[in-house]
Write a structure and sequence with these properties.
This protein has 715 residues and is α+β, with helices and mostly antiparallel strands. It is built from 21 helices and 25 strands. It starts with a strand and ends with a helix.
């Protein structure tokens, strides 16, 4: 079917894929009019440019071929792929049934109990390994060998007999002569025929490859079990230290983990399975030593289907090894979905988009923005909340999500199914982040969501680790708002929803705060008359400026004053009436006051101040500070001293002043949850980092204390 290439990072159609290495899931095939072929297969609209290894895209219209690859570590680990794909299949059935967003919230974004039980269940190959491993060990220690005829060059006195090959070499190699005599040659060295043991043949190569395959299988299973145990430990830790987290966030998160908090049975099963796998791994370590199967080419490709040989048929040890090989082949073929690997990667990209949509649903619910209505590609859900402006989330058909507030797009969420930190190589990770930063659109702000886990980020240097996890509220030191926000998510991390909700909160607050102060156009004479005697509204050069949300009686007084500006038509004074101006001023002042009323509503407890004159303080540079009477939280609009742009700050549950702490993305998950706007400085809690330029609020002041985050070099 005809299609067109859609760049999801740029948010527009492109003629051809970009050059160089490309992140998996960046390009999408939308309906169009160009016949395209991916790896000699006709492209179908609604799919991603995804392949196993290299790819070739042929454009029939332009008669042009593009080639590229996604790198060696585009896919995440097996357990993440398994869980996200399983969740994606369940969500795909919800989309097909056209269910509402409330039904999406019933699906957990974490590794559920059913998925966990499936991964902890012993597999058929585990039983085969237990039964056949002693036979494999015996075959490796005492393998079948063959005698190979060889000729060794030995001193003439040690040669047992002279063969034609020895005479041929002696006539051609004078260096092997001891002396030249009139009647012939007295040899110094001769080729002596012998027999030596030969292990390098098909059956032993299969044994060597089988040991390596079993090692990879056991190691992969052991990593899965350790990740499950780490997740259960995180759940327990979360439950134990919930008092140190925002209680509103903890209350919501407990609903997600309630089925995993008291899972002693799963813990016991995970522990026993881990111990069994460690025992198998220790047994396989012995079979990978240099003294086992010496001289056998371990990396020879022997295929997957075993040839029937006399050794595999008649030797019991090798017959059991062949059984173990066939069990490994069956296990490998059953790990993923049926079909070629390209189809499995395609399903992974589609499932990750669905999984991101599920995270967004839970993130909105955590912000008390309850989504309503059907949620499907091409549709938009509306959120029910106390916000005066309508908040909605649109699901684009190209697999991206757009957050709207008051009819205006405030954030683009782009799921990119590329494991940026899977390689665990700082240089390669930095290159892939640079490629994303050069391609992402900035209007509105772009948030790239990708699969990534905490233990892999922790192995990276600080300057790169900060770039792998930079939400909208916590940019990396370099780039700031010029680069896309990067957010790692995983079904094995309970804070994935929280960190996404924090970025959504920032986008909504930035949209609301940046409209302060409200301005209304009107003649200067009328502006002075309206603003006279009021401290919440002021006369400006071309009209009125509302610097503070008014109390009801203050608003009523100004509306009455506006009514006194009305005058009738006076022909002798050559003027008409101003009824239209008065009505417009009254409506715009009322609308502006209502829009600014959200500034005195606490972002945390949603309490609205009854006395804005006391809790709201207008500041220089079109900034403000407001305080909550109930929870004592404060929120501000500050102006950056570096880029001169304004950004929101929330001080609700910060650490004590003077406490130095490293508040990177993972630390913010633990300390703030979703109750934060702009990240706090690592040295001074009263200072925040500008989300637009990434610099500290005091980066250009003489008293600035450069921390590790600001220095970027670990000093």
């Amino acid at each position: 079917m005809p299609a067109r290439i859609w760049d999801r990072l740029l948010g527009r159609e492109v003629e051809r894929p970009p050059g160089g290495r490309m992140p998996l899931g960046r390009l999408f095939f939308a309906p169009g009019d160009r016949p395209l072929f991916l790896n000699a297969t006709a492209v179908r609209p609604g799919r991603y440019l995804a392949a196993n290894g290299t790819w070739t895209l042929w454009d029939e219209t332009r008669r042009h071929r593009d080639e590229g690859d996604f790198g060696h570590h585009a896919m995440p680990d097996d357990i993440t792929t398994y869980i996200v794909t399983a969740v994606g299949r369940r969500l795909d059935s919800l989309v097909a049934r056209d269910v509402t967003a409330e039904d999406w919230l019933s699906e957990t974004p974490l590794m559920g109990g059913a998925d966990m039980d499936e991964r902890l269940r012993p597999r058929e190959i585990d039983e085969v390994i237990e039964r056949c491993l002693p036979h494999l060990r015996a075959a490796c220690h005492l393998p079948v060998a063959r005698l190979r005829a060889v000729n060794r060059l030995v001193p003439a006195s040690r040669a047992r007999r002279v063969t034609p090959a020895a005479i041929t070499r002696l006539t051609a190699r004078s260096e092997d002569w001891a002396a030249l005599r009139p009647d012939g040659i007295r040899p110094a060295r001769l080729l002596d025929p012998a027999r030596e043991t030969d292990l390098d043949f098909y059956e032993n190569r299969v044994l060597a490859r089988l040991v390596d395959h079993l090692w990879d299988h056991v190691q992969g299973r052991l990593v899965e079990v350790e990740q499950i145990e780490a997740m259960l430990d995180d759940v327990s830790t979360y439950a134990e230290d919930a008092s140190g987290r925002p209680w509103r966030v903890s209350q919501y998160m407990f609903l997600l983990i309630e089925g995993l908090v008291e899972s002693s049975t799963r813990r016991t099963r995970a522990r026993r399975l881990r111990e069994d796998l460690e025992r198998l791994r220790n047994a396989l370590v012995e079979l990978r030593g240099p003294t086992i199967l010496p001289g056998v080419h371990r990396h020879t490709d022997v295929g997957t289907v075993l040839r029937s040989t006399n050794v595999f048929t008649n030797d019991d040890r090798y017959r059991r090894a062949a059984e173990l090989w066939r069990a490994w082949v069956a296990e490998r073929s059953g790990n993923g979905a049926s079909g070629p690997s390209n189809d499995r990667i395609q399903e992974w990209c589609e499932s990750f988009t669905l999984y991101t949509g599920l995270l967004l649903m839970h993130a909105l619910a955590q912000l008390d923005l309850v989504p309503e209505g059907p949620f499907k590609p091409g549709g938009e859900v509306r959120c029910v909340a106390e916000h005066r402006e309508a908040v909605g989330l649109r699901w684009e058909r190209t697999g991206t999500f757009v957050l709207h507030c008051g009819g205006e797009a405030v954030l683009r969420v782009v799921p990119v199914a590329h494991a940026l930190v899977a390689a665990e190589q700082p240089g390669r990770t930095a290159e892939e982040i640079d490629a994303l930063a050069a391609a992402a659109a900035t209007d509105p702000r772009t948030l790239v969501v990708y699969p990534g886990q905490r233990e892999k980020r922790e192995k990276l240097p600080l300057r790169i680790r900060l770039r792998t996890f930079q939400g909208c509220e916590a940019p990396a030191p370099s780039g700031g708002g010029r680069a896309p926000a990067l957010l790692p998510v995983s079904p094995l991390e309970i804070d994935s929803v929280t960190r996404l909700a924090r970025s959504l909160r920032w986008a909504l607050a930035q949209h609301l705060f940046e409209r302060y102060p409200a301005r209304i156009d009107c003649p200067s004479r009328d502006a002075n008359a309206v603003a006279e005697g009021a401290d919440w509204i002021a006369a400006a050069a071309n009209g009125l400026t509302i610097v503070r949300p008014p109390a009801p009686h203050e608003l009523a007084a100004v509306l009455r004053r506006i009514g006194t500006l009305a005058h009738r038509t006076a022909q002798f004074m050559q003027r008409g009436d101003n009824a239209e101006l008065v009505d417009r001023l009254r409506d715009e002042v009322r609308a502006a006051a209502e829009s600014l009323a959200e500034l005195v509503r606490c972002p945390l407890c949603r309490n609205a101040s009854s006395d804005p004159a006391r809790t709201f303080q207008a500041r220089d540079g079109s900034t403000f500070r407001s305080t909550c009477d109930v929870c004592k939280a404060t929120w501000e609009l500050r102006r950056c001293g570096s880029c001169d742009r304004r950004y929101p700050v929330l001080n609700g549950n910060g650490r004590a002043e003077g406490t130095t702490a490293e508040t990177d993305g993972d630390a913010m998950d633990h300390r703030f949850g979703s109750e934060a706007l702009s990240a706090q400085c690592w040295v001074r809690t009263t200072v925040a980092y500008c989300p637009h330029c990434g610099e500290c609020g005091e980066a250009r002041t003489p008293r600035n204390l450069r921390c590790e985050r600001c220095a970027g070099d670990g000093r």
